[in-house]
């Protein structure tokens, strides 16, 4: 992975580049405002301008044409700010109320692929030029309780994949659930996901899906759960490895939730690892270092390192990090640790309570490593 920092007027872009000589290149960028005292519209303008020129800058740097396939905005006040963001015309888009903790009002994560121009399939679902799909936010707000909205989102994704010759069970590699008032509403997400997975044959002795379930706000105040996902229709069973990290983490089913700790997907030229939201936990399911943000951050990173290593990767292969904090007052400590240990990896630290109150911090990431895997799937 090659890491770069690009400065522009009012914004900073941290960029991770993976350039495969045999397949598609891809890039991940975290773009943040550098004008914390300016109004939201000015900060958004600078971030969007940086994002809008990103593909051209990547082409100038690499000689390869890349296009966005997924973008997510992290906002400090989504109800008021989201109406000022235009609907994406080029890829799946997600808007979440998870305030950047660097004192700004907006940050953006952009995932780009070489020849990644996407087709809009409707209702937030986009497909690239081959077999991959991204579920962004639905075109209309979805009021309802957390059980109903989770069940509806998973069933809708399953139906969409079936219509394209796939299925949720076999081809969905990654999901995100952003939950309003997570301390109260997460139980509905868990129950609905368990029920849907039981219906479609996903269980502890088969597999689940890599996932993050985290606190945050949809722009629609009545919407308790927002859902995003990534799927690949060409992947077969032999192309997918479910990573457990058993020396450091317990099976999620032991505390009644249904997701994989991490999932690795193999293509002819690379391996991609999706690490679910990971916290400070041990292999008995207990919180490590209750109340100590520094120690929890250390253990969390150790757990992530174990999952990456099981997938044949390391932190040097990480394309981006999304760091979730329950308490904004912990930002300075966490920022110092990440700046010391992973200074170049694109990251954003946001205010987002973790699903278990004792966990002060959680982080998800994606890694990409070049290798000949033997997979029949060309990227």
Q: Strand-residue fraction?
A: 25-35%
Q: Report the uncertain regions.
A: none
CATH class of the domain at 1-117: Alpha Beta
Helix and strand composition category: alpha+beta
Indicate the overall shape: globular
Straight-line distance between termini: 17 Å
Helix-strand pattern, N to C? EEEHHEHEEEEEHHEHEEEEEHEHEE
Q: What share of the residues lie within helices? A: 25-40%
Descriptive overview:
It is globular, with a radius of gyration of 19 Å. It has 379 residues and is an alpha+beta fold. Among the domains are: 117 residues, 60s Ribosomal Protein L30, Chain: A (2-Layer Sandwich); 107 residues, 60s Ribosomal Protein L30, Chain: A (2-Layer Sandwich). The strands form three sheets. The protein has a six-stranded mixed sheet with strand order 1-2-3-6-4-5. The protein is 25% helix and 32% strand. It is built from eight helices and 18 strands.
TL;DR of this structure?
Helices cover 25% and strands 32% of the residues.
Which helices and strands, and how do they pair?
Blueprint: E1 2-8, E2 11-18, E3 26-33, H1 40-52, H2 54-62, E4 66-75, H3 78-81, E5 92-97, E6 106-114, E7 119-122, E8 125-127, E9 132-135, H4 146-163, H5 168-171, E10 172-179, H6 182-200, E11 210-215, E12 225-232, E13 240-243, E14 262-266, E15 270-278, H7 293-310, E16 318-325, H8 331-341, E17 347-351, E18 361-370
Parallel strand pairs: 4-5, 10-11, 16-17
Antiparallel strand pairs: 1-2, 2-3, 3-6, 4-6, 7-8, 8-9, 9-12, 10-12, 13-14, 14-15, 15-18, 16-18
């Amino acid at each position: 992975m090659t890491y770069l920092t690009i400065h522009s007027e009012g914004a900073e872009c941290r960029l991770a580049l993976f350039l495969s000589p045999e397949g598609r290149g891809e890039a991940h960028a975290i773009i943040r405002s550098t004008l914390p005292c300016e109004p939201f519209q000015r900060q958004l303008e600078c971030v969007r301008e940086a994002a809008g020129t990103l593909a051209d800058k990547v082409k100038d740097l690499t000689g390869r044409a890349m296009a966005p396939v997924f973008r997510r905005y992290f906002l400090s006040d989504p109800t008021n700010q989201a109406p000022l963001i235009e609907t994406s015309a080029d890829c799946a888009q997600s808007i979440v109320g998870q305030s950047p903790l660097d004192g700004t009002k907006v940050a953006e994560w952009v995932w780009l692929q070489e020849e990644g121009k996407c087709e809009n399939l409707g209702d937030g679902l986009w497909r690239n030029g081959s077999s991959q799909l991204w579920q962004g936010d639905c075109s209309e707000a979805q009021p309802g309780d957390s059980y109903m909205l989770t069940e509806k989102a998973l069933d809708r994704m399953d139906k969409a994949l079936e219509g394209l010759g796939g299925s949720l069970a076999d081809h969905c590699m990654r999901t995100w659930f952003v939950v309003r008032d997570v301390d109260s509403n997460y139980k509905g997400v868990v129950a609905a996901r368990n029920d849907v997975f039981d219906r479609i044959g996903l269980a502890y002795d088969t597999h689940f899906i890599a996932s993050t379930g985290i606190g945050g706000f949809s722009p629609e105040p009545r919407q308790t759960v927002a859902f995003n996902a990534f799927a690949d229709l060409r992947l077969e069973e032999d192309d997918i490895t479910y990573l457990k990290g058993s020396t450091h983490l317990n099976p999620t089913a032991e505390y009644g939730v249904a997701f994989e700790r991490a999932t690795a997907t193999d293509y002819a030229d690379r391996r991609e690892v999706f690490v679910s939201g990971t916290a400070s936990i041990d292999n008995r399911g207990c919180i490590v270092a209750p109340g100590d943000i520094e120690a929890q951050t250390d253990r969390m990173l150790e757990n992530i390192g174990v999952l990456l290593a099981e997938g044949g990767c390391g932190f040097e292969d990480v394309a981006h990090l999304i760091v979730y904090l329950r308490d904004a007052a912990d930002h300075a400590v966490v920022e110092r640790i990440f700046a010391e240990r992973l200074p170049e990896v694109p990251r954003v630290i946001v205010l987002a309570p973790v699903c278990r109150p004792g966990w002060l911090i959680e982080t998800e990431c994606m890694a990409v490593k070049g290798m000949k895997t033997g997979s029949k799937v060309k990227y």
